[in-house]
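ingest -> validate -> predict -> emit
validate: passed (alphabet ok, no gaps, 233 aa)
predict: started
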Amino acid sequence: MLKKSRQFIAGVLVGATLFGGTTVLAANKTILEITTLPLKYFFDGLQINPPEDQQGFVYKGTTYVPLRFVSESLGEKVTWEGKTSSIYVGKMPEGKLTYLTDLQPHSTSGSFNTLIKDSGNFTTIMNQTYSKSMQLNTYNPASGEYLLDGQYKRFQAGLMPDSYWKGKNSEKLGIIKIYGDGEVLYSSPTISSNASEIENIDIDVTRVLKLSIEFDPYITSPYIDFIQPRFIQ
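emit:
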């Protein structure tokens, strides 16, 4: 079957391609040359066809697929929040999010202040880029203590080797421990440089007054991504 080249306005791709019919206002519009293909979708071996208005396309060598169709075919709900221009797949946050990178620690040791200063966007070994993240890349143990005053319910984050480790030898990088008022709430397994899945952190911090995060590196440059550490109220 012949490929078809078309022009799309980038500003409406979220509404038309990802959500199938949702109207979205775009601040900036750009004309894109794309190529549509007769894509077939298989989920656990079963072929499912997308609606006519939710077709995939190719742009600059990358294939884009309709998020709503794919997510719902996998049993996950998709929610668009226009106020913050956010897309949620699966569960939405249960309460207000406060990212660790937006808070000032009460006290620190080692190079923790440097980790905070260098926080931002990082890409993991699996080519996933996350904002509001930290990179645990210090050769000495480092820790930071935060005063929560019992105002949060949960602390969530992820751990994964950075894209720096692509194509490099396997190494044991280090561990992280999280304390609430002096008690261990979480102790990670050893993070390896060839890990292919995120180590998810989800702990109850209800009534916790002081939270301490301790990082213990095993090598000089561990390059572990501390993915979107955040508190939920």
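The radius of gyration is 21 Å.
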